[in-house]
Write a structure and sequence with these properties.
single chain; about 90 residues; mainly alpha; 5 helices
């Protein structure tokens, strides 16, 4: 995930969040994640709802992580998210 990148700019992101300007980051981040999804054969098989869930969930997790002081390492955050997004069990039902 991109939590390593966001950790470096945590202060800037925190200021954006506090000043209700986080939306300035959200759309470019969505575009970035959409490219990652499109380039990954397993992720690219997800339906629109599943992709939206991953985009929104990842963005909101990053927001929460920054707001709460980025205490967990980027690896810990990534592992936490991957535990709840078990791609092997996703289905189109």
């Amino acid at each position: 995930m991109s939590f390593n990148y966001w950790q470096r700019d945590a202060e800037t992101l925190d200021l954006l969040i506090k000043n209700q300007l986080f939306y300035l980051i959200e759309q470019p981040f969505y575009s970035f994640l959409e490219k990652i999804i499109a380039e990954n054969s397993q992720l690219n098989q997800l339906n629109t709802i599943q992709k939206s869930f991953i985009l929104g969930g990842t963005t909101q997790a990053m927001r929460s992580w920054i707001t709460n002081g980025s205490k967990d390492s980027p690896v810990e955050i990534t592992e936490t998210l991957l535990k709840i997004i078990n791609l092997a069990t996703l289905s189109d039902h």
